[in-house]
Amino acid sequence: MLTAIEPYWPHVLFLLSLVLGAAAAIHAAMTKEEVRSAIGWVGIIILSPIVGAVLYFIAGINRIRRSAISDRRLLLGHARDHFEAYDATSEMIADQFSERFAAMKILGDRVTEHDITTGNSIETHVTGDDAYRAMLKAIGEAQRSILLETYIFDRDRVGRRFVEALTAAARRGVAVRVLIDAVGARYSVPSVLGMLRDGGVTVDVFNGNVIMGLRLPYANLRTHRKILVVDGCVAFTGGVNIREAFSGELFGADCAVDTHFRITGPVVADIFAIAASDWRFTSGEDLHGEPWQIISPTSEPGEPVAIRAVASGPDRSVETNHKMLMGAFSVAGRSIRIASPYFLPDRELITALVTAARRGVEVDVVVPQANNLTLVDRAMTGQFDQLLKNYCRIWRAPGAFNHSKLMAIDGCWAFVGSSNLDPRSLRLNFEVDLEVMDSSFAQELERRIDLAISTATQVTLDGLRNRPFPARLLDRMLWLGSPYL
Hints:
The protein is 43% helix and 16% strand. The protein is built from 20 helices and 15 strands. The protein has helices at residues 2-5, 9-31, 35-47, 51-60, 80-84, 90-97, 99-111, 128-141, 157-171, 193-198, 248-251, 267-283, 320-331, 347-358, 374-383, 385-388, 423-428, 439-454, 461-465, 469-480; strands spanning 121-125, 145-150, 175-181, 202-206, 227-230, 234-238, 260-264, 306-312, 335-339, 362-368, 393-397, 406-409, 413-417, 431-437, 457-459. It has an 8-stranded mixed sheet, with helices on both faces. The protein has a 7-stranded mixed sheet with strand order 1-7-6-5-2-3-4, sandwiched between helices. The model is unreliable at 66-73 and 210-218 (pLDDT under 50).
């Protein structure tokens, strides 16, 4: 039979390439919202017959389709009406922060799945040690439930402390669920998963077997979220992973720096809903019933602090963080302060920052002097000139690597959490951030960023242009690959 069809192989391959190529190109053109992405994939498909189509079907299609617990009210039961009283109104935001930030509330209402609520509190932990102590204390005092989601959970001295605390909670009857990203779980070999399971903790991995199982379509889709919710009344989130590299007590003076936040109030229900949705997507289990009941706030509606939980990811929440940042840069009237370890914004965000600077807004961006990802740092450097020649300022902060993601605008609006300003966080990762409207909190962040600027070295156009040509060329070549770093 093979001998009979051998003369027709060229025709078969031509028809196969035509069918596969047409199907892939049509799918890319009809589903991609970013024109550069669509053009790039169509080009690969046309220039690499069959191979390009196969690559597109493997890596170019977003297959994450999942239902979400999109509203905290599904989790509240009889407390639903009580929680609704905490929702901020546009009039309330306008009276306290101006019409510009009332517009931000409308934007958030339309692009996120959660309302901005009043009656919250937020406490900042500026070191890993502070964050770990507070989180372990909450786990140790848990009476009903613990839900932990994280990107990295190392099997080191800090990781073992959390394993011991979670195991002790499970043994005293607390419902414990731990979700670790499949890639982040492999930062330690062997991983911490076995220790947790041996201790009676229910644990799972997000998008599991992406390496050994070759689940290539999902290898880039990671949960970068860091969430801990205890007893439905207190939550922790921010940028801190569970690893001793962020502990000065264990790692020493060279430990990395990060920022984490302890939150109480009605927004805890939204943070829980985000993590519970990820758990259901991974394990199929709905976290309902008495152990997972959300506790009604004790604060009064209308009291500070107004906070919104912002979930982003390659599902129904795609580019939500990007949309919020575009809106925030657009309404800024006085200042934009940003601290980010990985600063690789796309053209739209650069345009928004540059436009704000041209309007007279002070735009300051602080990045680490020494970065833990050299390729990303070189790509960042290759892009700096686009901001520097348009009235923005960039600063290199000395000292230990700072992994914090902090933003404050006009001393009253803040955006903190797990999102970096890079393509991975803005389009591929599952992230969680907090939109915080509170002058005290935003000004605290501004003071921290200004303190970093006071000891930082300013990046200048002349300094960039005076670097050797091979170094500048390498930066630009790496910048071209920044969507894949």
